[in-house]
Design a protein that fits this description.
single chain, alpha/beta, four-stranded mixed beta sheet, 32% strand
């Protein structure tokens, strides 16, 4: 049975994620309770906000120690993805260390703005079974000012002045810089892929 929990890191946009999951007949609980998180079949770490306050909340509930050791499928969205990296330059914040690398502020060219807001096409960096689930070309919606480097965990990237990781995976941890809950059919396909993964 699919049982999804959303980890409460104090960020925004939780309602949109819940609504996207309800369209797939999944009613997800927002929680910081360890026993609820460990018992779930799938875990999502969503978030719109700042790295420092989010990590402070996770640490206050001991979730900084729990999350990296989860064994079920885990999906990080936007800030949730950034918190999965080792460090964020936003507030000089030590993060969860699931992925290697530092989250840095975007440095776009003069004609481009920060925050990066809008639709971008994923550029696949390595073969991934998710490609079969998404309609190509896969366009996703982004809203962010900080981003992850491209490295061995990068599945797909996007360019906004510079190239950054849009989708990463390591073991059971999948991380998306974009907002699947705002990305129409392609975003729904990502949620469907994640929920079928067990």
């Amino acid at each position: 049975m699919t049982q999804v929990v959303l980890i409460d890191s104090g960020g925004y946009n939780i309602g949109s994620v819940k609504a996207a999951l309800r369209r797939l007949d999944v009613d997800a609980e927002l929680t910081t309770a360890h026993h609820r998180i460990v018992a779930a079949s799938h875990v999502i770490l969503p978030g719109v906000g700042a790295a420092g306050p989010a990590m402070n909340k996770l640490k206050s509930h001991g979730l900084d120690r729990l999350i990296p050791n989860l064994q079920q499928p885990v999906l990080g969205i936007c800030l949730g993805m950034q918190l999965m990296y080792a460090h964020s330059a936003e507030g000089d914040t030590e993060c969860l260390g699931i992925f290697d690398g530092e989250i840095k502020q975007l440095q776009p060219k003069s004609a481009e703005r920060v925050p990066h807001m809008g639709w971008n096409q994923l550029q696949w960096q390595q073969p991934h079974t998710l490609q079969q689930s998404l309609m190509e070309p896969a366009w996703m919606y982004f809203v962010h000012s900080f981003a992850a480097p491209v490295n061995g965990d990068t599945v797909a990237c996007v360019k906004h002045g510079e190239t950054f990781t849009a989708l990463a995976q390591r073991a059971n941890f999948l991380a998306a810089q974009f907002h699947p809950e705002r990305s129409a059919k392609a975003g729904q396909a990502l949620f469907e892929f994640f929920l079928k993964n067990n």
